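Supplementary notes for students who missed Thursday's class. We covered one full example, reproduced here. Read the sequence, then the structure, then the short commentary at the end.
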Amino acid sequence: MGVVTPPSAAKAPKQDRSRATRQRLLEAAVACLAEVGWAGSTVSVVAERAGVSRGAAQHHFPTREDLFTAAVEYVAEERSQALRSLPTEDRGQVVAALVDLYTGPLFRAALHLWVAASNEEQLRPRVTELEARVGRETHRIAVRLLDADESRPGVRETVQGLLDMARGLGLANLLTDDAARRERVVAQWAALVDEALGG
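Structure (token representation):
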């Protein structure tokens, strides 16, 4: 009698391949959205970039909206994980890291998704809900990293103002490399935040 492979052992490699395919699709979707925008980011283009068939892409994500909202959510979670692991001793580093969150490919991809959602009824509620969730999580992480006591008057608004400022710097960076000006603004905001939060 031959050796029988337990069903769970046979399933594991297939599940691993499926997870890897899904991750490649998500990463390719964000890269496409950041580089060519919503109009140029079709499921076929993403599947080709990820090295999978269109059928495999649609198996994981039945609609284009499913694919791109999942992609932005996936990378947002990756960035949140990176933010959570930041050292909290230096508020200046925290401010710079929060600004970096809004000046990279994730923000560019999310911005294309926002613009598309403003024109596409079926996409708008999904993107609105996703952005609200990502915004709340980013705010929570920022509060923890900055060691901010939101029970004090003005502290919540200071943290939110920092995140709004970071988003504005991200927008300014879309058309031109704004690194030199951004560095000065970040240094000033780090000083303001430190003064406002105290401790």
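Commentary. The chain has a mean pLDDT of 85. Residues 33 and 188 are 32 Å apart (CA to CA). If anything here is unclear, bring it to office hours.
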